[in-house]
């Protein structure tokens, strides 16, 4: 099976982890933590980094550091991983969904303002599959309505918007280092920001909100969390960071080869890249126009699987997530999100691993063409 993703870890990671173990710094203090925080923040052109134990917790930490909580609302795109919505819910605030743009699959900036109320505190800008959101417009709306902007950049390490690194545009940005992200620490995440207040607050809340007043270490003035990353994970992260540009170039090169081989296949819609962005192509995401392609994406995925090619579905529209019923809010009646629905119906991503070979991409594209052709011939027969 050609997997959807495989991380690349090697000798450098091993050497760093061995050093952490040999020096006995195995918990959340140690040289690699700060080195990784500073190094990754530098990579994003941002002043401060706060490591966490995951991308999901870094989003929650960002919201908590902005004092978002009960009674507040946060704008969240309806097409994304569930994490941003979960994180809003953990704070006691309510996620308010906005449909996405059909081409970029990121939040539709023309539909944000109609969802803003007196309770809205922030906009969650989720960069999808490596393609950045329309950040200028999001910042403009946020300034007009006095809202914060949180970038969920878990899928967009190294991507750029109008020459600016993703992670450096909003008030705060959140990254994941799960095994299938551009760089990995196994599990892990990071919040990055230029704002010293957000930085200090995030570090404090991450570390159980231990009091910094002298003699009061175990007196808590705030509800804290333990979202710390270990020095062992940061040791892996430091080694991965050295290779980030190499990894990014592999992703882009693979995407361009896919594009070249699939561009003339009718019914296959290639991933977007607006002229003013750099797509990091975290996952090579295509859409299938069933009418033109002949079969649905679901059937295509099944047939690819039989040929030893793994693929994954697009996200399920958030407003339809069954768990949201527990909030007692009816997200389904009176609202509709035609683009998220359509994307879910049409979209899949193809193998995008860092050690994917050119021949494998060739085989995958050839197989897609054969499946289309085979179906055509079958239809002509009956
Ligand atoms: C992966 C991902 C997350 C969650 O990161 P974890 O490290 O798995 O907690 C959040 N948001 C998006 C968009 C992601 O792709």
Task: Characterise the protein shown here.
The protein has 382 residues and is an alpha/beta fold. The protein has helices at 11-22, 31-43, 55-65, 83-91, 135-145, 196-206, 231-242, 244-262, 290-293, 297-306, 338-346, 358-381, and strands at 48-52, 73-77, 94-98, 120-126, 148-152, 160-161, 164-165, 172-176, 189-193, 268-269, 277-278, 284-288, 312-313, 347-350. Strands 1-9-8-5-4-2-3 form a 7-stranded mixed beta sheet, sandwiched between helices. A 4-stranded antiparallel beta sheet has the order 10-12-14-13. The longest helix is centred in the last third of the chain and has 24 residues, at 358-381. The radius of gyration is 22 Å and the shape is globular. It contains 12 helices and 14 strands. 38% of the residues lie in helices and 15% in strands. Bound molecules: pyridoxal-5'-phosphate.
